[in-house]
Amino acid sequence: MSRFLGHNVIGDVHLGDWGLQIGMVISELRRRMPELSYFAEDYKGEYPEEAPFTIDELEEIYPAASSLAKSNIEAMEEARKATFELQSGRKGYIALWKHILNVSVEDLKKNYSALNVEFDLWMGESDSQKYIDEMINYLKENNYTYESKGALVIDVAKEIDTYTIPPIIILKSDGAILYSTTDLATIWQRVKDYNPDQIIYVVDKRQGLHFEQVFRCAKKTRIVNENLFFDFIGFGTMNGKDGKPFKTREGGVMRLQDLIRIIQDNVVNKLDNNKGFSESEIYDIARKVGLSALKYGDLSNQVTKDYIFDMEKFSSFEGNTGPYILYTTVRIKSILRKASEEKMNNMDAIHEPYSQSERDLMLKLSKFNEVIEFSFLEKAPNKLCEYIYDLSNLFNKFYHENKIISEENIEKKNSWLSLITLTKNILETSLDLLGIEVPDRM
Question: How confident is the model at residue 259 (pLDDT cuts 50, 70, 90)?
Fold first, then answer.
């Protein structure tokens, strides 16, 4: 939406690739495969080019390591030590870290591609490391920091606060850095490289206090100027019908690629086999309709709220769903295709409405610019979803009341064809802004 409105936008995935979770994985790998060369401190040779684990193994290793570290003090200390040694440049751990990053990014790119999602930058916490010393020296030299129980901190509370805002910790007492350090250094880097007017963070809503501390610190220490606008969009969770985070039948957290496959299979069963679709066309339609169900189901909810992911509801061709919006758009394309085949291409300007349903459709179409601007300013894709759902309903009401192709009044017919062409264009543009593709047939 921002790009559509003419802004220059840079999307950064910003991977958490440098913190304690990496130390947890490394220490777990050491417990499982202590013979690997990465753990031999006196090893002088070249490390293998291929990772000693697959993405599936990595997805099992991290939860196991995290669970153990939370319940076992010794395991947590091992993870912290591995994190410190990684960040201090231990060669074997750097090599392992690169494997973890490469395997993860390859899988992430595959999944994001399936969702029709792209990022301009594939950067992470590690990319801010080279700025940390420079930033900390700046903070010290300008007397923004002080020591508290051995840690280096900055006060960010204000007199007008009605709730407690703790100081932000820049360095722990043992000299280790934290998320707050790397997030602040990332802002330092972004200002240095891009000098943005606005930075939008789309993060778990439970990180709200953390980012308020970081944003306040960046402003207080003049790392950014007063005019730079920080926007935190905290998202909720996708839950199953039991109200708990969406899981597989086996009880594990649902993998995105599995969810996409399940919903596409669900859509295949709903397609009308009497329309003569080829096998490849059925797959393409199922992919687009399935993703519309998944993405529209997510984006039509207020971003900050948790919601229930109901497979049957979201993949339905009726109601406020992605497939319903697609079906409406495809219906208009079908009418226009038929009109073209019958050489009805002399579309005129849209005339004054001939009925109340036509007037209502025109008025809704006229709200498009206003809706896009409001949706962007409020960072609320759900408002755009509401708009195209209402627009689809109004078109279908108009369609059922009028015989567009068989209308004998040429002026009226041409006006209607122009009207539904505009409706199609606005629906397609809106769906594109939501990252949803439209098939030619359904």
Answer: confident
For the chain, what is the HEC assignment?
CCCCCCCCCCCECCECCCCHHHHHHHHHHHHHCCCCHHHCCCCCCCCCCCCCCCHHHHHHHHHHHHHHHHHCHHHHHHHHHHHHHHHCCCHHHHHHHHHHHHHHHHHHHHHHHHCCCCCCECCEHHHHHHHHHHHHHHHHHCCCCEEECCEEEECCCCCCCCCCCCCEEEECCCCCECHHHHHHHHHHHHHHHHCCCEEEEEEEHHHHHHHHHHHHHHHHCCCCCCCCEEEEEEECCEECCCCCECECCCCCECCHHHHHHHHHHHHHCCCCHHHCCCHHHHHHHHHHHHHHHHHHHHHCCCCCCCEECCHHHHCCCCCCCHHHHHHHHHHHHHHHHHHHHCCCCCCCCCCCCCCHHHHHHHHHHCCHHHHHHHHHHCCCHHHHHHHHHHHHHHHHHHHHHCCCCCCCCHHHHHHHHHHHHHHHHHHHHHHHHCCCCCCCCC
Bridge-partner residues for 253, per DSSP?
A: 247
In angstroms and rounded to an integer, the radius of gyration of the C-alpha atoms of the chain is: 27
Domains annotated on the chain, with CATH: 1-121 (no CATH), 124-235 (3.40.50.620), 256-433 (1.10.730.10)
What is d(CA 330, CA 325) in angstroms, rounded to the nearest whole number? Answer: 9
Q: 49-58, 340-349, 417-426: which has the minimum mean pLDDT?
A: 340-349
Residue pair 80/23 in contact (Cβ under 8 Å)? The answer is yes
pLDDT in tens, 39-48: 998 899 999 9
Given a cut of 90, is residue 389 above it in pLDDT? yes
Which residue type occupies 141?
Answer: E
The distance of Cα 250 from the centroid of its chain, to the nearest Å, equals: 26
Averaged pLDDT for residues 350-376: 96
In 404-442, which positions are buried (b, 16+ CB within 10 angstroms) versus exposed (e)? Answer: beebeeeebbbbbbebbbbbbebbbebbebbbbbbbeeb
| Residue 206 CB neighbour total at 10 angstroms | 11
